[in-house]
Structures are given as structure tokens and as C-alpha cells.
From TrEMBL:
<dbReference type="InterPro" id="IPR029479">
    <property type="entry name" value="Nitroreductase"/>
</dbReference>
<keyword id="KW-0963">Cytoplasm</keyword>
<dbReference type="GO" id="GO:0016491">
    <property type="term" value="F:oxidoreductase activity"/>
</dbReference>
<keyword id="KW-0539">Nucleus</keyword>
<dbReference type="GO" id="GO:0034599">
    <property type="term" value="P:cellular response to oxidative stress"/>
</dbReference>
<protein>
    <submittedName>
        <fullName>Nitroreductase-like protein</fullName>
    </submittedName>
</protein>
<feature type="domain" description="Nitroreductase">
    <location>
        <begin position="20"/>
        <end position="194"/>
    </location>
</feature>
<dbReference type="GO" id="GO:0005634">
    <property type="term" value="C:nucleus"/>
</dbReference>
<dbReference type="InterPro" id="IPR033877">
    <property type="entry name" value="Frm2/Hbn1"/>
</dbReference>
<comment type="similarity">
    <text>Belongs to the nitroreductase family.</text>
</comment>
<keyword id="KW-0560">Oxidoreductase</keyword>
<dbReference type="InterPro" id="IPR000415">
    <property type="entry name" value="Nitroreductase-like"/>
</dbReference>
<dbReference type="Pfam" id="PF00881">
    <property type="entry name" value="Nitroreductase"/>
</dbReference>
<dbReference type="GO" id="GO:0005737">
    <property type="term" value="C:cytoplasm"/>
</dbReference>
Length: 219
């Protein structure tokens, strides 16, 4: 199953796929922005409005934090990790040599997008469609993941680098308290972004033949 040159009816399709292919994980970031804060907000807002959700449940909740507000997230994470070190749950050497430098690198970026799921908002539809009740929470996470991916791709298209982090539940309580967020908002991921200061690592691919099967294709 080789890669072949194809033509699309809409040139935007090729552009979209090139953006998808160019998206990478960047860890070296600085607190600068190639676009306005309004433009960043527009990217996030469009993800909230237009990313689909199962049964149109619209369960994703998003918080955009920039500059000093962004730094607070990683101050919270550093404080939480230091608490684990003090309690003997995390080796001090590992924290000082590995975890702390990573957290400080996240803090040095320009912004963080916090992605939440409001599971409480699913109560009515779980009751209405009881046969699917155990599926709605995973459906909500799938929708949230699509929002994360869209924002990531769009930010990189505008000149940012980004990386996706998962520090829940370690930071959840302080995040909720610091920004007075509803208790029903459950944190899923943190997308850190800024202007890249280093190249991303090499990207390896498993054989596509082991991951994609096509049937009924015209010759």
C-alpha cells in the first residue's frame, strides 16, 4: 500500500492535510506570540463552537490562559509536585533532574489552553437514551480530543509550537479554585504553546499496511 499522488476537487483539502502532517510536539518554547491575542481566542472559540459532539451534547469546556495567567498553571503544578516530594511519594533527585525542568519549560511558554469535560451536563441525555448511558462519557472525551487537536493544528499553522500535557488530577483542585470554575468541569488536558526555540524530535511511523485496510477500491 504505497503513497500515490492524488488530486482533490478542493485545493483546501491539500492545505488541510499538509497542516495535519506538519503538526509536531515542541517542548522548547518561549513567551512570545506571532499573532494577536484576539486571533488566539478566535482559534479556541471556533473549536468550542464547531467541533462536533455526540448527540450535539456540547460537553467541552475550555479556558484560555495567556502570559501571567498561563504561568499560574505551572506554578500550581510545581507546588503540587514539590508536595509529593516532601511526602516521599516522588524521589527528590528525579523531581530536580527531570520533572522540575519540564514544568519550568512549560511555564516559560506564552499560553496554556485547559480542556475540560462537563460530565454533569450529560445527565438528561443519559436518562433519555438509557441504552447508550455508559457510552456518553467516552463520547464526550472523543469530542474533547477533537477540540484539542484542532486548536493544536491551528496554533502551529500560525507559527506556534505546542505540546499536550495531562497533570490531572494533581492540579485539578487548585485550577478550579484559582479561576473560580464550576465543579462539574473535569480537567482532561493542558495544551502549552509558544514560539518554538528548538526543533521537534524525529517522528517514526509504524507500517501503514498494519494500520489501514481498504476494501472495494476502484483501480
Amino acid at each position: 500500500m504505497g503513497s500515490t499522488q492524488v488530486e482533490f476537487n478542493n485545493p483546501a483539502t491539500s492545505t488541510l492535510l499538509e497542516l495535519v502532517k506538519s503538526r509536531r510536539t515542541y517542548y522548547g518554547l518561549k513567551a512570545e506570540s506571532p499573532i494577536s491575542d484576539d486571533a488566539i481566542e478566535s482559534i479556541v472559540q471556533n473549536s468550542v463552537l464547531h467541533v462536533p459532539s455526540s448527540f450535539n451534547t456540547q460537553t467541552s469546556r475550555v479556558v484560555l490562559l495567556l502570559k501571567e495567567e498561563h504561568q499560574k498553571v505551572w506554578d500550581i503544578a510545581i507546588k503540587a509536585m514539590e508536595g509529593l516530594v516532601a511526602a516521599g511519594q516522588v524521589p527528590k533527585e528525579m523531581y530536580e533532574n527531570h520533572t522540575k525542568p519540564k514544568l519550568e519549560a512549560f511555564r516559560a511558554a506564552y499560553g496554556t489552553v485547559l480542556f475540560f469535560v462537563d460530565y454533569d451536563s450529560l445527565a438528561a441525555i443519559k436518562e433519555k437514551f438509557a441504552i447508550y448511558a455508559d457510552k456518553f462519557d467516552p463520547f464526550a472525551l472523543e469530542s474533547n480530543a477533537m477540540s484539542q487537536y484542532l486548536v493544536w493544528v491551528a496554533l502551529q499553522s500560525e507559527g506556534f509550537g505546542a505540546n499536550l500535557q495531562h497533570y490531572s488530577p494533581l492540579i485539578d483542585a487548585d485550577i478550579q479554585k484559582t479561576w473560580s470554575l464550576p465543579a462539574s468541569w473535569k480537567l482532561d488536558a493542558q495544551l502549552v504553546f509558544g514560539v518554538p526555540t528548538s526543533d521537534p524530535g524525529e517522528k517514526a511511523f509504524a507500517p501503514i499496511e498494519d494500520r489501514l485496510k481498504v476494501f472495494g477500491k476502484s483501480a
